[in-house]
User: Fold this.
Amino acid sequence: MLVLTRKIGESIKINEDVKITVIDVKGKNIRLGIEAPRETKIYREEVFLKIREQNQTAATSHYFDPSKVSKLMKDKIKK
Amino acid sequence: MKLETTRFGIIDIEEKKIIEFSDGLYGFEKERRFTFLPFNPNVESPMEWMQSILSPHLAFVVTDPYLYVPDYKLKLLEEDKKKVGLELDESFLIRSIVTIPENYAEMTANLVAPLVINSSKRVAKQFVLTTMEYDTRHYLLPEEMRTTAANH
Assistant:
């Protein structure tokens, strides 16, 4: 991993079109500003972990009666 | 073709009804082929099962998120569309994976990671939205329905 030291207000650039600026540092929190083309996808890394966990939970919680669930959903959609 | 499933026994499915997720799903990267089955054979339902072709025991409950969140915002960029083989303006299906806990009234849908399905080419992908607006556990029922159903 490339490790760089930056001060508040300083930036790094990735390729021609992505710029990440250190906006502020407060204790353990660092605020970053990111300028990138519209189509660049920027995520907090934890979101992928959450999705994996949710997929796994969804795949294993099956202790229900489908007919009861269907009935409840129909009641909801009618409203 | 015959398909072995834990939940439905051995069933006959049409191969043209198999949907291919070339990256699998998050946490299930090897699960690339699924088929949709009725949630409840005798009753009309907004839910469907998404049964794995590879693993008999693996099936997800999925639903159309727009039934519950009519203003659900999902913007696909051109390169996202290309990943599921969509031509310009070609329509696609959106499904969300549903988690149904023991108190089924508290079921939730994952609105952060929708399944985008190109039904004509039969390819699909689980996308991750960059917006912070949605949750991986979005309650499908309003609070009053969650509590009353629990008391039945």
The longest strand of chain B covers residues 93-99.
